[in-house]
What does this fold into?
Amino acid sequence: MGELFHRYVSFTPMRLRDLERYASEMEVQIGFAVNRRRKYLLDELEFWLSADTDLETWEVLCRPMFFKIADELVQLVRDVYWRRKPKGPEEVTDEMKLRAKAYPVTGLIDFTRGNALAFCHADKAPSLLLWAKGNRASCHVCNKRFDPIDILMIRDGLKYHDAVRRLCAM
It folds into this structure.
């Protein structure tokens, strides 16, 4: 009974904004913090469901705790869903940005001999180099680096959101 009461009193519900604050303080990614919290809540649920108690203790401690934990799990899933969902036609998610940046630069620029003509200025000799490790292109004439999003923005004159959406659709 002592351990049950201690766990009941020490449980503090959290929202996604609390997890974001703690994740930034501990310098971890928010996805890692959310997954750790979800695992902790599932372990707590298992503990409270498997607690061997009498009916009165179940009604006073275990049952309310079960609903506290279940409510937090549902709220966490809901908050994560709405955080990832684009809020309008101009908005892009973090996942879309990562997918767009991962699009191969060689699919946008033809590097047949290792170099290519730069699209950011008038170029007679190839001055654009491919940095395959970072999936970037670099111009040694104007000293600029480009990721796939930058390439579409400059070459095709797209806005950032449109470039990300086009790369995700490719």
User: Anything to note?
Assistant: The longest strand covers residues 128-131. Strands lie at 115-116, 128-131, 136-139, 144-146.
